[in-house]
Write a structure and sequence with these properties.
Blueprint (H helix, E strand, L loop, with lengths): L4 E4 L9 H16 L3 E4 L13 H12 L22 H14 L2 E4 L3 H6 L2 E2 L2 E2 L10 H9 L5 E4 L6 E6 L3 E6 L7 E3 L7 H11 L4 E5 L6 H11 L5 E5 L2 E2 L15 H6 L4 H9 L14 H7 L10 E2 L2 H14 L2 H13 L8 H8 L9 H9 L18 H16 L6 H15 L4 H12 L8 H8 L1 H13 L2
Parallel strand pairs: 1-2, 10-11, 12-13
Antiparallel strand pairs: 3-6, 4-5, 6-9, 7-8
Helix pairs in contact: 6-7, 9-11, 12-13, 15-16, 15-17, 15-19, 16-17, 16-18, 17-18, 17-19
Length: about 475
């Protein structure tokens, strides 16, 4: 094989779905692994489904994620244009070539006739009616401007076999292949036809795509064979499932890259996780940088079985990336979420220190910090903790002592505040938890918080800490 050339050929029909991003990622990684080229092509032949702004989303997502293409609409290349609608005149020429060789034919059937064909399990199969029109009749109908499409003339006997790098040899009976439309009545090519023409003209010799194309690939191969062109290498990837029964789907509104970013996931974590949806490295690594993905990716690691998109696994992976950020990196990235909390009276560095190791996504930050602004009456039953052996009576006894200990702390920081609480526990002859638990509840009114009592007290400051303790004590 000459230099490997892969491509990502999305349709601009909305946001870039996770499955599409994985196709782009694998195609990019394999091209780089093999010292090849990765090409972006926009397949916009279905004008009815075109969504304004979708092309810009594709460009932006690929740039942000580092999946940079060597050739494409906005970077140029030797095989342009890289937008299918700008190549319209190419397709009809090749379709007519197939008509001349008998591998395709003009079809003038009306919508009414097509709807009258037998409905077998919800599908109407075309019956080759127009294949039998004489050449003279075809020419006459074309001359008077009758509406037509061009259909591929599929063989009705035998079978077609091809090899897939993941699934091995795939054989489809030719009798199952319908005479698909190549050129639509508006003169635009169908996806299936333009795909083959463009892949050949752009020198694409490795096609990576989802398993939904396993059964239709023979249609493409028959086109390659009809033109006398070399078939590309095929690598089909397993589907990404929402659960055991449903595929992750753009049509169902499932996650896009930009949705995940808005939900507080980091770019590196998203790409890392998407890489693992259908592939695993030889060393079974889970957390991998983009550079590590480029060095470890190998098509032998692509799985045959479907992968389930697990939000919890993605959140866990994201938390690992968050923990590795420097305090400044975290503060910079977390700024929009912290700003939403209106915490102008609190030390930003302490806020970040409190939550960095305790969130899985940045979107959790407002909820984690809500107690700083909202300190409402809470149920005193929160003082009850079987493990720490505390209850309301314990709190009533301990909290005045906590208040006194805090009031006497000279340096108001976590180290000295924690030391005061531990010293109090020792003086009372009890375990630390019997002091720490009631103190934290009294300061937050919450069973779960992003930090312990002394960390929260440091952030609240002396005056607010003592005010909250006084209020909680008065409620007991």
């Amino acid at each position: 094989m000459s230099q490997l050339r892969t491509r990502f050929a999305p349709s601009p029909t909305g946001y870039l779905h996770i499955g599409g991003l994985r196709t782009a990622l694998y195609s990019y990684l394999y091209a780089k692994k093999m010292n090849g080229k990765f090409i972006l092509r926009i397949e916009d032949t279905d004008q009815g489904r075109y969504v304004p702004g979708a092309v810009e989303i594709i460009y932006r997502t690929l740039r942000e994620t580092g999946i940079m293409y060597d050739e494409g609409p906005d970077v140029g290349g030797d095989y342009g244009p890289y937008i299918q609608s700008q190549r319209k005149n190419e397709y009809l020429k090749y379709a007519k070539q197939l008509v001349e060789s008998g591998h395709a034919y003009y079809c003038f059937c009306t919508e009414e006739r097509l709807l009258s064909l037998p409905d077998v399990n919800g599908a109407r199969r075309y019956d080759k009616h127009c294949l039998h029109l004489s050449k003279q009749e075809v020419e006459e109908r074309l001359a008077r401007g009758d509406k037509y499409v061009i259909r591929q003339n599929m063989p009705t006997e035998g079978s077609t076999t091809y090899h897939d790098a993941v699934y091995g040899d795939i054989t489809i009976e030719n009798s199952e292949l319908e005479d698909q439309i190549l050129i639509k009545s508006d003169g635009m090519p169908t996806y299936n036809f333009a795909n083959v023409i463009d892949d050949h003209l752009m020198g694409i010799n490795c096609v990576m795509r989802g398993t939904e194309y396993l059964s239709s690939t023979p249609k493409y191969n028959l086109l390659y064979d009809a033109f006398g062109w070399e078939r590309p290498m095929y690598i089909h990837m397993p589907p990404i499932m929402k659960d055991a029964h449903n595929k992750l789907s753009k049509r169902n509104g499932d996650a896009s890259y930009e949705d995940l970013i808005k939900k507080g996931f980091l770019k590196d974590a998203i790409i890392n996780y998407i890489a693992l949806l259908g592939w695993s490295p030889k060393d079974d690594s889970e957390k991998m940088s983009f550079e590590e993905l480029k060095s470890k990716f190998d098509i032998s690691g692509i799985n045959k079985s479907p992968s389930i998109f697990d939000p919890q696994k993605l959140a866990w992976l994201n938390s690992q990336y968050i923990k590795e950020m420097t305090p400044q990196q975290f503060a910079d990235y977390a700024a929009p979420w912290i700003d939403d909390c209106y915490l102008k009276d609190f030390d930003r560095a302490l806020v970040c220190k409190l939550v960095q190791g305790r969130v899985e996504t940045f979107a959790e930050i407002p909820d984690k910090l809500r107690f700083l602004q909202q300190f409402d009456d809470f149920d005193n039953a929160l003082y009850q903790n079987q493990k720490q052996k505390t209850d309301e009576a314990t709190a009533k006894e301990i909290l005045p002592l906590v208040r006194k200990a805090f009031a006497e702390v000279e340096k108001w920081d976590n180290e000295h505040l924690y030391g005061a609480l531990v010293q109090l526990a020792q003086q009372q002859g009890v375990k630390n938890g019997k002091v720490l638990w009631p103190a934290r509840i009294a300061l937050t009114g919450l069973a779960a918080t992003p930090g312990g009592a002394s960390e929260i007290a440091e952030l609240l400051g002396r005056d607010e800490t003592l005010r909250r303790l006084d209020r909680s004590i008065s409620r007991l």
